[in-house]
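Thread: Modeling a multi-component assembly for a lab meeting

Hi all, long-time lurker, first post. My supervisor asked me to bring a structural picture of a complex we are working on to next week's group meeting, and I have zero experience with this. I have the sequence lines for every component (410 residues in total). Could someone generate the structure of the whole assembly? Inputs are pasted exactly as I received them:
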Amino acid sequence: MDAIRHRRQNPARTELRRQQVLTAAEACFCEDGFRGASMADISRRAGMSTGHIYHYFRSKEAIVEAIVERDEESGLQLIERLKGSDNILETMIERVDDCMVDRPDITKAALLLEIKAEASRNPVMAEIVRDCHNRIREQIEDILKAGQAQGSVSREIDVTAIAVFLITLWDGITVRLAIDEDVDRNAMVATIRQAYDRMLRPGKA
Amino acid sequence: MDAIRHRRQNPARTELRRQQVLTAAEACFCEDGFRGASMADISRRAGMSTGHIYHYFRSKEAIVEAIVERDEESGLQLIERLKGSDNILETMIERVDDCMVDRPDITKAALLLEIKAEASRNPVMAEIVRDCHNRIREQIEDILKAGQAQGSVSREIDVTAIAVFLITLWDGITVRLAIDEDVDRNAMVATIRQAYDRMLRPGKA
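Re: Modeling a multi-component assembly
Sure thing. I ran the full set together rather than chain by chain. Output:
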């Protein structure tokens, strides 16, 4: 009993187990879709009992929430790195390829797409996705305002509209990466950089 | 027998039945996802026997192919209307709101997203979606070249890269419409018009 209690109270171990469940769930959702993959499938893949999994996540929706948050975290880190820059627009333009390369590999892009498809008919998941979208939008707005304050981003733009536009564009990029392995990533990076430049640079925008 | 043969040979009736199946399938896929909806569900919804449905479509994938083609058709019609314009860029900019209003309502947007999510793990569907994408890309390239020839679209742009960018952007818009009912459509239309203007107008691009 003491050993069990000790294990339960070990936060590093709990975190490790949670990550193990998330990784198994990502693989199951990618293969069979959100509805096709059951908690039993996920637990089998994670090498745990189903009861054990419910100890970490109360439902499949809670697992999705954690997956979305893990993805959001990597998006927020990209935005965070912009904060220290003394030319935010240049750094945004420079970092476009990091966003393409670091972030959604094909499998991950497909999973995010699956989650968004499910969100369109599942109100709980729609709320998870919308909350995440709103947090990211606010962060992008802040970065754009910081760029305006330092003079690297045009003061003429509507920061909210542009933030929504950028999220929309990156959602589209996720779709493209998910369904087209042969997409010309270099051409795409070049075109996105042009879009950033033409829509945000002072004197152009 | 003659009556049956007669019905089978009536193309208008066949087309009507096919459309009836497609409409039922769209509703089933929207509610339960591609994998969640069976041919039996679709036939129940369409008010036909399952055997009868196989007379019109050999598989769920064939139904999806027809749904994608129906959507492609409406996209191609939008492009077609641009062909007669003596200022293709202006007409593209003008028509952005038609594309938002005419085309993907929330339910349809969700279905297209579902199809793309499934395409990311189903090679047959990936090919259907990719073929459709390639046909639309070629049409957009042709329109952009026609715009360049008449002088309304910058000759400096890479027509293939811009065509892929436009498809990517509209995929993103489909995602946004599917998961966020409250999206500010007017602000979105304004920002997309800016993007078209800044990326395509001679002297700017």
